[in-house]
Design a protein that fits this description.
Aminotrans_3_PPA_site, Aminotrans_3, alpha/beta, four-stranded mixed beta sheet, PyrdxlP-dep_Trfase_small, binds 4'-deoxy-4'-aminopyridoxal-5'-phosphate, transferase, transaminase activity, seven-stranded mixed beta sheet, 440 residues, single chain, Aspartate Aminotransferase, domain 1, Aspartate Aminotransferase, domain 2
Length: 440
């Protein structure tokens, strides 16, 4: 079927070939072409495609019951997935609420925070401070938290404006600060903002521990994370980690928060949590927050498909497989291998200005000048061109252009966590070939 005869629409018309099947880190189209899934879709397929043990478990659940409404029945898949999730997350996060996607997870986190504040008599706390650039989803609430005006402005007025603070973009800083001092400097922007807004009105702060689509795998200086936690504690502001992209092993730990020993108050997850086997997400929070809400009459929130047994059986099988096969440890090891190879690209291509990331959430960024980190001119359409050159050669990568005017064309390389060293070499051969073609 040609594109003209498609009834479907997404962001734009879709000229891509039809997908046939997936296997491990590879996807195949109907013409038999093979692609390395170098971005796990949109950082989703963490355990790789068509994992036979996961498929067998989903099929077994299908034979029993595909749906039982959560208010009518408890189900073993949902209870077991909640238990497995708690076992894999840091202590202090021991209550789970299921959703079907990342935006739903973010909305749920904010609503839980709000209801908890009400149980504490803190009715004035309603503002959620987020960062720019940032991405938290496309529903109105999550979009209101997203620090990227081109996505927000067409829909204004939305909800009540949510305050924003700058996310660390340390490679753009031209100061003489040490890494540590710079981390503190950025964290203290939150402190200033809370004071300016009036601490008694601030409900929560939400951040991606490692930037995803918004900043391209940007990691803050280590000092940032602890300082943010301290500031939130100082003012009684709840700390929400949006780990929709970074969670489920992507950065070499189950949660990225573990890299800095941080326990957020609420964590939002999706993407790799269902790993492409089911539309699935979750928020995880401490009993400290959840129990008072339940005592006060219950969480006034829920989606019809939330916690359905089929999606939860998929999620459970995904986490078991991730754990049993040591995929998170592999992500940490392979992330280092990949990072060395990506850094080496800077010797060969002067237009690569920065390489960064954590675990298997890595990125490189194009610039016209490494000194000033000036982006390439938008008319070059560099992000789309490189993606096409790689796609033609059988490599899928994920790119974004200038976010909030702060970063230029960046490319996320985030293959499934099962990738081997040999497969990284294979990926890099295609990537270098695409970059050579781009450079011409
Ligand atoms: N938060 C983050 C950090 C994300 O990367 C995304 C998706 N890119 C979302 C939220 C929204 O997730 P979804 O598209 O599943 O609603």
């Amino acid at each position: 079927m040609s594109d003209d005869s498609s009834y479907l629409f997404y962001q734009s018309r879709n000229p891509r070939p039809f997908l046939d099947y997936g296997e491990g880190i590879y996807l195949f189209d109907e013409a038999g072409n093979r692609y390395i899934d170098g971005s796990s879709g949109a950082m989703v397929s963490n355990i790789g495609h068509s994992n036979p043990r996961v498929l067998a478990k989903i099929k077994a659940q299908m034979d029993k019951a595909t749906f039982g409404y959560r208010l009518h029945f408890r189900t073993h898949p949902s209870e077991d997935l909640a238990a497995k999730t708690v076992a894999m997350t840091p202590d202090g996060l021991d209550r789970v609420f299921f959703v079907s996607g990342g935006s739903e997870a973010v909305e749920s986190a904010v609503k839980l925070a709000r209801q908890f504040a009400l149980t504490q008599g803190q009715d004035a706390r309603h503002k959620v401070i987020s960062r720019f650039p940032s991405y938290h989803g496309c529903t109105f609430g999550a979009l209101d938290l997203t620090g990227y005006d081109p996505l927000r402005e067409p829909f204004a007025p939305m909800m009540e404006g949510m305050p924003k603070v700058a996310a660390p973009a340390t490679y753009l800083d031209r100061d003489n600060l040490s890494e540590e001092a710079r981390g503190i400097k950025y964290a203290d922007l939150l402190r200033d903002k809370i004071l300016a807004e009036g601490p008694e009105t601030v409900l929560a702060f939400i951040m991606e521990p490692v930037g995803g689509a918004s900043t391209g795998a940007l990691v803050a200086p280590d000092s940032y994370y602890g300082r943010i936690r301290e500031i939130c504690d100082e003012f009684g502001v709840l700390l929400i980690y949006d780990e929709v992209m970074t969670g489920a092993g992507r950065t070499g730990k189950f949660l990225a928060a573990e890299h800095w020993g941080i326990t957020p108050d609420i964590v939002a997850m999706s993407k790799g949590f269902g790993a492409g086997y089911a539309p699935l997400g979750a928020i995880v929070a401490g009993a400290r927050l959840v129990e008072p809400v339940l005592d006060a009459g219950g969480f006034l929130h829920g989606f019809t498909y939330a916690g359905n047994p089929l999606a939860c059986s998929a999620g459970l099988a995904v986490l078991e497989e991730m754990d049993d096969q040591g995929m998170i440890e592999n992500a940490a090891r392979m992330g280092e291998v990949l990072m060395v190879q990506l850094r080496a690209l800077m010797d060969r291509y002067p237009f690569i200005g920065d390489v960064r990331g954590k675990g298997l959430l890595t990125a490189f960024e194009f610039v016209s000048d490494r000194e000033t980190m000036e982006p390439l001119p938008p008319e070059l359409d560099a992000h789309a061109r490189l993606v096409e050159l790689a796609y033609e050669r059988g490599l899928i990568i994920y790119s974004r252009r200038t976010r909030g005017g702060m970063t230029g064309d960046h490319f996320l390389i985030a293959p499934p966590l099962i990738i081997t060293e040999q497969q990284i070499d294979e990926l890099m051969v295609i990537l270098r070939d695409a970059l050579d073609a781009f450079a011409q």
